[in-house]
Amino acid sequence: MDCKDEHARPRRRQRPIAPAVALLTAAAVASGCGGGGAGGGGNAVSGLPVHVGGTVSGLTGIGLVIADNGSDRLTVTANGPFVFPVALEPGASYDVTVAAQPDTPPQNCAVANGAGTAGTGDVTSVAVTCGPLPSVAAVYPIGATDLEWEATRGALYVTIGASAAAGANSVARVDPATGQIGQLVPAGPDPGVVRVSDDGAYLYVGLHGASSVQRFQLPALAADITIPLGYDALYGPGRGDYVAGDLAVAPGAPRTIAVSRHVPTIYPTANLVIFDDAAARGPTGGGALPDQLAWGADAATIYSVDAETSDFSLGVYRVDAAGAHGTATVREAFPDGFELRYSQGLLYGNDGNVIDPASANVVASFPTPGRICVDAANQRLFVLWQDVGLNLWLVAYELAHLTPVGIAPLPNVRNPVLRLVRFGRDGLAAVTNAGELVIIAHALSLPPPALGGGGGLIAARGGATAYAVYDLPVNDLVWSAQQNLLYVTLPSTAAGRGNSIAAFDPAAGAIRASAFIGSEPGRLSLAADGQTLYLGFYGMTAFARLTLPDLTRSAPVLLGADPGFGPLYAVDVQAAPGSSTTLAVLRSFYGAITPSLAIFDGATPRSQTVLDANDGVQWGGDASVLYGYHTGADVLDVAVFPVTATGVMPSTAGMEALYGSVARSVHFASNLLYGLRPGESDDSRGLPGGRWLGDGAGPRRRGRLFRERRPRDPRRRAVRGRPRARHDLRHAAGA
To answer: Stretch 133-137: mean pLDDT, rounded?
Structure first.
């Protein structure tokens, strides 16, 4: 089981979360399906409409939502009686279910007497009972500081720190079934990180109270050699003594370890040294600050992540007899990252990124950052995720597609987790910063998440302004007139179709086809031929080209990383007018950094690119001009970029709205730019337009005044980072 774990520091910052939205279509509503979605079954009985209701008890959490017939939803905030707002005709069926479980604290609510047929009087017998969630974790306060599973003989080893009430300054073999300590031997002053060689011959312990690593022989757990770590020459012996911030045993080389040395309380001082037994190889040259380590497939390559500075850089090192040599650095590879795992050629970070180190591309992401364990043998990624209410959840992802397949709350684990490992047939073990050993049973059979997003009808209205709302959390959508279909991108948390593209028939209210496409698919753009569809990703540094109607995908075009800013994400893609091969790609770096605008012909980028503060782009009437738009606190800022055979030229002109936060997106049609004002999608005043006249007459306005503006400073920073399509998975447990 590939669950090599890295000791870690507390999380520094939280990622922005951009919620996906439901799909709304204007459509004719079939007879009997309007009026808010009340159920139909049974023969109609004459009489007055009746209401369905009942009583809620035991509720202490926040966020309970119940539903009748799947669409009449009611948020419940307190114990006592409830009544659904939509009345039913006598003879109609009702079916009350829990649509979202409460959290803060997490609870499980169940419905009794929830289904039946309405008679001539109101239904008052539905009972919703809430109680605490059962935990799948056992917690043992033994003073643990780190842990490691030795798979050869099936043993769990735990280091016991200096502050433990019993067995302090030791390394112990622990029975994971009971949490009982078996063999206990002295390890040295304040033991921390512990690692085991892949052949089960040696166990290594980094000491926080001494400048050394202690090696033990297994299975006897007999003390072997002491490996001195030395001191920082700048601070001298004593004050400058190194300790092991992290260590990793080389694959296939049980007597070789890599150690991330640092001076406690002095940052940044991390450096990487390779040891053979107690002998250090030469000093490491180049690379990023090596705070956390992960070997590659063999002892010739090692990786690191910088958790001391704000760069969060990935370091790549070639290892030979002379030591480690930095060969590459990728800035912002793991934003907020302080943990690194290697599995099957990929690097997994606790921040949610999965990187191919060979190409420096983010190839996938998962939406719940936290302590991680990769179980390649069972094709699972396990994450201990802490929500905004500081509740801890265990989330399991299917490894190939990174879609969630299991979730369970851990209500009795209240302290931050330092490390997570797999053990045995289906167990997980963790340690917290309070010295607790946490044992989780049956990790391979967690309850499946109740995600929603299956495409069912949520609400509908008939009449002159008919519309229907479907349970599809789309990231973007585009209409194909040739196919008479809407094509939508769905995030990883869409039920049954995570990380996919789907063809939705609005006339029938049904998904006609769908296909897995890649991690967190985002913006869409249909080319002029009506058959070529381009797609950008929020969870990959790539864009893809698809052929309609069969959704055949070509190999993704990888965008890589900028040396100064880090990985590049296609936050907007726009097919050029009159072409099926030319594409404008707005490439954004993680964080509030000015995006890069580039033109691609097929998979080949044109040489000339520009940096400018844009949230999105739109082509003009032909492929010779692009409009970039950016929204600040009080302006809609539009830039004009000439496009030539060499690429995008710097903006020479543009326009600004004089007042108001007027737009979050822009659309070009009939020589006009339309901006959509947030919160006013159904208000014609929310579609201000501006026309740019290329004859020097200056900008004109329709509906809202624009003014001419000077060219923007290309160094100006955008106010938002790359979007992330995520759902709050708290409501997916126990529903």
So the answer is: 74
pLDDT of residue 132: 78
Q: Which residues contact 225 (CB under 8 A, 6 or more apart)?
A: 215, 277, 278
* Domain residue spans of the chain: 33-132, 189-416, 472-708
- Which pLDDT belongs to residue 75? 94
- Residue range 33-132 forms a domain whose CATH class is mainly beta
Residue range 189-416 forms a domain whose CATH class is mainly beta
Structure tokens at 510: 């049904």
- Half-sphere exposure of residue 97, counting CA atoms within 13 Å on the CB side? 10
Superfamily of domain 472-708: YVTN repeat-like/Quinoprotein amine dehydrogenase (2.130.10.10)
pLDDT of residue 719: 32
DSSP annotation of 554: P
670 φ/ψ angles, rounded to the nearest 5 degrees: 50, 45
| Residue 669 CB partners (closer than 8 Å, separation 6+) | none
CA angle 135, 138, 143 (to 5 degrees): 140
Mean pLDDT of 278-288: 85
Tally the C-alpha atoms within 13 A of residue 569's C-alpha that lie toward its C-beta.
29
DSSP 266: -
Q: Residue 60 is encoded by which pair of tokens?
A: 């202490």
pLDDT-derived band at 635, boundaries 50, 70, 90: low
The pTM for the full model equals 0.81
| 432-452: average pLDDT | 90
Phi-psi region of 484 (alpha: psi -120 to 50; beta: other; left: phi over 0): left
Q: Which of 561, 485, 547 is nearest to 517 (CA)?
A: 547
- Across the range 606-622, mean pLDDT stands at 90
User: Which residue type occupies 722?
Assistant: R
Q: Dump pLDDT digits (tens) for 466-506.
A: 888 898 999 999 999 999 999 999 999 998 899 999 999 99
Note whether 189-416 and 472-708 share their fold: yes
- Looking at per-residue pLDDT, the higher value among 428 and 728 belongs to 428
Is residue 37 within 8 Å of 459, Cβ to Cβ?
yes
- CA torsion 521-525-526-528 (nearest 10°) is -150
What rounded mean pLDDT belongs to the chain? 84
Give first-to-last CA distance, the chain, whole Å: 31
CA–CA separation, 173 vs 160, rounded Å?
11
The C-alpha angle with vertex 540 and arms to 328 and 646, in degrees rounded to 5, equals: 75
Alpha helices in 92-181 (DSSP H): none
Residue 17 has pLDDT above 50, yes or no: no
DSSP symbols for 662-688: --SEEEEETTEEEEEPTT-TT-GGG--
Tokens of 290: 């090596």
Sort residue 703 into left (φ over 0), alpha (ψ -120 to 50) or beta. left
Per-residue pLDDT for 571 more than 70?
yes
pLDDT at 614: 82
| 385 and 396 Cβ atoms separated by less than 8 Å | no
d(CA 236, CA 242): 10
Closest CA to 346 of 308, 381, 311, 319: 381
Residues 421, 595: Cα–Cα separation, whole Å? 38
| Strands annotated E in 563-645 | 566-567, 569-575, 582-588, 596-601, 604-605, 610-611, 616-619, 625-631, 636-644
**Which span out of 12-16, 341-345, 688-692, 717-721 was modeled with the highest average pLDDT?**
341-345
